[in-house]
Batch of 4 targets.
Target 1
Amino acid sequence: MNKSSIAVFVALIAVAFMGVTTTTLVQSAEKKDPNRFNRLMPPKDKRTPPVAEDGIHDPENSGVKVLQEPKEAFSVLVKGKGGNYVDWVKSLNKKKISPLYDLDDPELVPMTVDMNIVREVKGTMPDVVFPHEQHTQWLECNNCHPAIFIPQKGANPISMVDIMLGNKCGVCHGTVAFPVTDCRRCHSKAKPMKTSKKSSAKSNKK
Ligand code: HEC
Ligand code: HEC
Ligand code: HEC
């Protein structure tokens, strides 16, 4: 064998091995759960795992045993549709939780602003209503202004792709707030009905 045919031979063996390992991996994953294709929808028993198994906390740390298990804590809160399956807005407003607004000053209460911003959406999806009230219950103005949004209606181009990529609303929604799968919670304002064909035909004649 000359040098180049050895190289080809080695490459062929490598490809053969890769083929074997990928098929084995796919098969073993399938064996576990044949319908597991959407990482946004873990099966019910896999949601809100115990603290020691959540991949966030160090299971070796003794503090892990002191923390309350999320499943237990969430069981008394208002249920939601996605993410960790808690409706945090309703849970807060029904006083199921009363988080401290400031760690150093327990007396401090949030300065909420009741101002809705409607963003008209082209196409058939209902328009988006951004409520300041529900946000300022948890957040300060400077969590969003001006780094994520310039405080001026319409000044910030936003698209669904942006959001899915983790920008604009997607900085929080899908990470620390309800996920993008809950379309109607943002797209909550029905569009005004279009005038029927008949009447518009009439007005065209005039
Ligand atoms: C979670 C993010 C967020 C927080 C927190 C937030 N805002 Fe906003 N704000 C927005 C968005 C989104 C818009 C709309 C921007 C657009 O349409 O391009 C907006 C718009 C505004 C506007 C422009 C309104 C208009 O009609 O032009 C003002 C003023 C404003 N915010 C003030 C505040 C103040 C004051 C606070 C704190 C009390 C605050 N915002 C907290 C996201 C936020
Ligand atoms: C966290 C809030 C939020 C959620 C959840 C959300 N959207 Fe959006 N969506 C927006 C905003 C904001 C815009 C931009 C509106 C504008 O043009 O100002 C938008 C725009 C759109 C548009 C217009 C075209 C585009 O890409 O910008 C479509 C279509 C759309 N969304 C579909 C969906 C669907 C389907 C879902 C559920 C799978 C969804 N959205 C969930 C906030 C959201
Ligand atoms: C800085 C973080 C942050 C950003 C950016 C953000 N949100 Fe939120 N949003 C939250 C939090 C936190 C909540 C309350 C907790 C929850 O509902 O998960 C919330 C709640 C909401 C609610 C209230 C739903 C209800 O049940 O009343 C809507 C609607 C919403 N967000 C839409 C948007 C839209 C649209 C954008 C972008 C224009 C956006 N948010 C940007 C953090 C954010």
Target 2
Amino acid sequence: MVGLWSDLSVPRRGWELIDVEDLGCDESDFKLCEACGKKHVRYVHHLRHPSYAGTVGVGCVCGAKMQHDEGAEYIGRELEKRLVRRDRRRRTWLTRKWALSSKGNVKMKAEGWLFILCNRGRFWEAFLKPADADDFKYKARFATEAEAKLALFDVAFPNKIAVGAGQ
Ligand SMILES: [Zn+2]
């Protein structure tokens, strides 16, 4: 694939970062940087420009070059670091201590969320709600306990962080 830079009508500078997304550790899911067309990236930085239709997905180095604002630090670096920390937490998520209720349900409170898993026999039902609210944010069924736990993690801590989103 040839990158955007081979098209001379594409603006070189003044791009704005929208978000950074973690495609996961499987290299076959990595995407080719749309700017240079050379590097396969795991952490995709999405940027937009007022004189370009749509968004582009690029690596951190190209993202920083495209923003090219001498006065401002490229925030994409920090967002990528946050996603690296998130991935580390996800890898130990299943080994964390979950409380077992008398009914056989599994629960855990973490970072403002309440995670609940109910063993329904043939499947697991997973619930997520803010620890201080009554409304459920998410509810779904899974074949295994591990799948259910990871799904709840991904809803509570998404693999994509937008510029300006809280910690
Ligand atoms: Zn690139």
Target 3
Amino acid sequence: MSQAYRIGAGMRVDRASQYGEGGRWPADALTVPVDGLRSLTKLMKVENMTKDRLARETAIEESRKRFGIEVILFERDFGINSYLNRAPELKNPEQLSGARILVNRYHLLDLLPKEGRVVEVGVDRGHFSRRILDSAKPDSLTLIDIDLSRMTDENREFLSRNPSVEIIEGDSAKTLKSLKGKFDWVYIDAHHGYDFVKRDIEAIYKKIKLDGYLIFNDYTMWSPANMMNYGVMRAVNEFLNDNQNWVVTHLALQGAGYHDLAIQRRA
Ligand SMILES: C[S@@+](CC[C@H](N)C(=O)[O-])C[C@H]1O[C@@H](n2cnc3c(N)ncnc32)[C@H](O)[C@@H]1O
């Protein structure tokens, strides 16, 4: 049994109560190691951190370490990429040679073709849909989401009043497959699991006009906010490696690593 440490009255730092004695993690797995606590206590003095904050940061840190070990053991037993979705490197540097880095995705919206045929896949509250309308002034904007109840009433009202906007409730890949004609650009931001993103790409890439774009939100393999796997980067890099006529044109940065990547169809 590892040593637990009592920081202050009623502030024992272990998570046994949260996970339960019969829970997946043993009750002593998340207690604070005494050495670590000494240095944290020092830090607390330096930074004048409150005891409550110290206890809670320590609990997060211990969970993080435990999580890292679980992932290593899982991938040792079930194989590389059985839990995480590492993306393959791009094989051809030429596909990146004309790419620009932008401060954010709103700047990207300013640069994408105006008055085109546009789709946003994954709409959520509808705030970004309105930004697309304002910036790109599309001739037609198709909005697809599996659950439109997430859209705010104000955005729903505003968007449905616009004759160039079509709103469709349904699964992304199924709906994309059903769309007729070609598109100037499609913003893909629905389910971020690897298989889902792959399905979305397969459903639409042949319907992108020459010099048109696919844009991927959350071009990453990990969501730090949700502590979960994203398969966007893996699906996109695999697609680029298999389709050399597509090139990366823009990487739009986002402060938590949820960057956007724009790729363009060339001849
Ligand atoms: C991250 S949000 C979209 C955010 C929006 N594009 C923006 O930038 O504000 C993801 C959305 O995808 C939707 N979604 C998840 N899985 C889906 C699927 N299989 N088909 C369609 N939409 C899906 C969710 O309902 C959610 O509203």
Target 4
Amino acid sequence: MGLTALKTIVVSNRKGGSAKTTTAVNLASELAKQGSVLLIDFDTQGHASIGVGTQPSEGNGVHSIFLGKTLSETFIPTVHDNLTIAPAEAFFDVYEYADLRGVLKNRFEHERVADFFDYCVIDTPPTFDALLKNSLEVADAVVIPFVPHYLGVVAVGQMVRAIYQNASQLGHPIGNVGILPVMFNPHMKEHQELLKKVKVSFGKEKLFEPIGIDIRLAKQFESAEPIVLQGKRSKGQIDYQNFTKALLKRI
Ligand SMILES: Nc1ncnc2c1ncn2[C@@H]1O[C@H](COP(=O)(O)OP(=O)(O)OP(=O)(O)O)[C@@H](O)[C@H]1O
Ligand SMILES: [Mg+2]
């Protein structure tokens, strides 16, 4: 039985390469230090699965819920005791299906996910498709990581609008939409200026403190050891731990 009500955090951005997976894996691993966590890898690339020591599945991945499987039969243990993953299904093609609405929500309710987990983190593909919509239907919070470049900021605006539009269509309001600058270089004037703009445009309460550049965040996928679980302190570790603390205060 979970200690608290389940909190589900969706990490999303239609823009590719914006550290969604890096954020999802470290957020899930850090949360697993204080509760039971389910990480759902909804991106068929399977990078979140790799990040926690497993591989995208061929036949038993999370996308098989759309073909009638239960969510819990896709669960497998990870590098961390408190962290379970529902790995990606490598060859699932979302565009082959006409209507996939409500499937994840249905599984959450029927399988009483809230009785077994305190937190669920969902890594999503760089698209605004049925997978993201399924995720938004169960979301308590959405985190949009973005690289502070001009088009990165444009993409955040597009995502925020699309998320709110989708929420009003579904009648499922999302209490928290947060924006997380990643790969931030404090010495770059462009980064500083774009951050100021984002604060003004979206409200500073939406913005998290930035995650800096740290090559260990790229290397963690090779060793399948999320940076927040590594023994050695590093910039990336401290940034993701602070981000997790800040997120917990909001949800
Ligand atoms: N703060 C960082 N410092 C250095 N490298 C980073 C940082 N964050 C992410 N990376 C690297 O940047 C690349 C993109 O990150 P990631 O795969 O997490 O993005 P993504 O948004 O999930 O991508 P996709 O859209 O393909 O799913 C990866 O190689 C990752 O290791
Ligand atoms: Mg990814």
